[in-house]
Design a protein that fits this description.
- The chain is α+β, with helices and mostly antiparallel strands and about 110 residues long.
- It is about 25% helix and about 15% strand.
- It contains 3 helices and 2 strands.
- The protein has a two-stranded antiparallel sheet with strand order 1-2.
- A hairpin with a 7-residue loop joins strand 1 and strand 2.
- The N and C termini lie far apart (about 40 Å).
């Protein structure tokens, strides 16, 4: 309930119609379960835990620093490098169904 209040209802104009409010709560639940990593779950999303999906924070990572040593420690959990070091990256920030309080962030290799 605390996350719902802090991350959803306090960051939007609460709709007065019941069906509109149900939609907002449903969108928050989708975002929370699929896109929001949880510190309590070790950086996993609830969906990754529920479906036993390998967590995104343990997949191979991009390394934008060309001179960074291959075996150097990165943030926990340790993840191997994907491709070559010195990758050019694009940070993509979107919003679930256009709701600015529900960000969906992706990191891609730049063209």
């Amino acid at each position: 309930m605390r996350s719902l209040k802090t991350e959803c209802t306090r960051k939007m104009l609460v709709p007065l119609r019941l069906d509109a409010m149900r939609l907002e709560i449903a969108l928050y639940i989708v975002w929370h379960n699929q896109h929001r990593p949880s510190q309590t779950l070790g950086g996993r999303t609830p969906l990754e835990v529920y479906k036993a999906i390998p967590p995104a924070n343990e997949k191979r990572r991009f390394e934008p620093r060309a001179e960074w040593p291959q075996r150097s420690r990165c943030a926990s959990p340790q993840a191997r490098i994907r491709g070559e070091r010195g990758a050019k990256l694009s940070l993509m920030v979107g919003f679930l169904e256009g709701r600015t309080h529900l960000p969906v962030i992706e990191l891609e290799r730049a063209a």
